[in-house]
Amino acid sequence: MKVLMPLKFHHKLSVRAFVSTLSILLMISAGFAVEQSILHTQDLVVVYDAGLEPTGRQAAEEYPAIKQELETLFQWSLDLRPTLVLLKDNKRFRNLAGDNLVVAYALPNKNVVVIDHSKMNTSPFMLRNTFKHELCHLLLHHYIRDDNLPRWLDEGICQWASDGFADIIMDTKRNLLPTAILSDTYFDLEKLQHQFPQDKNSLMLAYQQSKSVVEYLSSKYGSQGILDFLKLLQQGYDLESAFELRFAMPIDEFQYQWRGHLKKNINWFTYVSIHLYEILFVLAALLTILGFVRKMVRRRAYSAQEDEEDAG
Predict the structure, then answer these.
(1) Which residue, among 57, 104, 113, has the nearest Cα to 85 in the 3D structure?
(2) Residues 171, 176, 178, 184, Cα dihedral to 10°
(3) How far, in Å, CA of 86 to CA of 38, rounded?
(4) What per-residue confidence (pLDDT) applies to 161?
């Protein structure tokens, strides 16, 4: 591991900050021979693999604006100095993340955000939205105890705050939620309290459902309603108490209303339109099989006719 410290962004580090940065470098470099560099600004530390200096500088330049957006939205100060880690190698990222589906993750107890740079070229705003989403996790955990912040709320709020972006590889053409609502296979929020399922479809559904629940909460009570609720959690109220205190109903009742709202706006035409490609694929396959069967029947009929003529 080789650490470079570009002078333009370098600021004097305290002993504690140096030790913290060094421990992060050792963590992300374990078992891999990689060259890494560090950018230091007054508010941010960026650790990046060789070749990613332009992206590192871009992130450092955009951080103040992203920080301001989050502070304005949540009315909380992001008074911490996070470390952003940009990794070039997807295999190394997966080794650290322990998951093939995520493109980034946050470590709130270390104020660290780790991003798989190999997945950041799918859209012009991918890096910015990813960074903003993960910073949102740091902000929420900075003000709210872990046991007061269920996973569905954590992910739902961060998607709400980052233009719907989730920190997994999302197939935007596959909206699993309408099908789950129509077939009653959606998740009870209590099951998404501590962790999300691991298989791809269930994980995607958990993210989509978390986003939908928070968006419905916002549509009913506005941004201020969500902020009031989060501040109650910050003050130490448990989830159920804070929810009832701000929204005057238990979470189960709200979940029932959310499901009814979605079901009212989802019909089987919507279901068919969502799964149009899959339906067309199945129909094409059935037509192909039907054509093959008809061809075989004709061939056998023709062979039988020839046999009769030969016998005659």
Answers:
(1) 113
(2) -170
(3) 10
(4) 96
Region class of 6: left (phi > 0), else alpha (psi between -120 and 50), else beta: beta
| pLDDT at residue 12, rounded to an integer | 47
Q: Cα(159)–Cα(136) distance, rounded to whole angstroms?
A: 9
The answer to whether 55 and 120 are in contact (CB under 8 A) is: yes
Asked if residue 78 lies in contact with residue 131, where contact means CB atoms within 8 angstroms, the answer is no
Whole-angstrom CA distances from 244 to 56, 142, 167, 241 are 44, 23, 29, 5
- pLDDT > 70 in the chain, percent: 77
Quickly count: other Cβ atoms within 10 Å of residue 309's Cβ: 8
What CA–CA distance (Å, rounded) separates 180 from 26?
43
Backbone phi, then psi, for 102, in 5-degree steps? -80, 150
How far does Cα 189 stand from its chain's mean position? 17
Q: Looking up tokens 């149009």, which residue turns up?
A: 276
pLDDT of residue 308: 61
- Give per-residue pLDDT as tens, 52-81: 999 999 999 999 999 999 999 999 999 999
Task: Give 119's Cβ-side CA count (13 Å radius).
Answer: 20
Q: Strands 104-107 and 112-116, how do they pair? A: antiparallel
Classify residue 122 by burial, with Cβ atoms within 10 Å: 0-12, 13-18, 19+. exposed
Say if residue 20's pLDDT is above 70.
no
Q: How do beta strands 45-49 and 35-40 pair?
A: antiparallel
- Strand blocks (E) in 41-158: 45-49, 83-87, 104-107, 112-116
Buried/exposed 224-241: b ≥16 CB within 10 Å, e otherwise: eebbebbbbbbeebebee
Q: What predicted TM-score, i.e. pTM, was given to this entire model? A: 0.79
**Is 50 within 8 Å of 35 (Cβ atoms)?**
yes
Structure tokens at 8: 């333009």
Tokens of 196: 């999300």
